[in-house]
Amino acid sequence: MQAAFRGRKNAPTQNVLAAVSFDLKFVYVLAGWEGSAHDATILADALQRTDGLRVPPGKFYLVDARYACRPGFLPPYRGTRYHLKEYGHRNYPTTPKELFNLRHSSLRVTVERAFGCLKNRFRIIDTNKPFHPLKTQIKLVLACCILHNWILSFGDDEIIPVEFSWIPNETNTQPPPGTEDNAAWVMKRDEWANHMWANRGLSRI
Length: 205
Hints:
alpha+beta, 4 strands, globular
């Protein structure tokens, strides 16, 4: 089974899909998929499960560029600079798409900070050579996420990484065939980007 679990890393890994709130808590976790599985495939599985991921009415999740733009899921513009560091040193956004990506990145950094905190706190899930059977590894991820949430609610936390320490996925990636962008949501994203650009002088960039 090792070949299927080799994704972007050399060692076998499992792919974990998670939805994170802005207070760094995990609100949904699906663990156990092969490391080579595409994120869009895992999302489709999460949405089809009876106890799977649900998008609250009138809301949407911020996702990275490997997902399609579709109802309930909003990725950044592909092929446009995205990382917070790319906008430093007075290198301000010059187009509506860049401004949208900057604000998207400023919000979605929460996901990377939550995972960074989780891995720093529970080193057992950040090892390249786990010694447990796959079923146990899946349970470990879920248990660590539950404990993470509990600590943030009732304990002291001192290991949350800073915003500028994360490295996002590339924005020039494409979702797999069959998961193309939804035209209505592409138009909605364009409307929001243009609205942000038109009102950029009224609020902080």
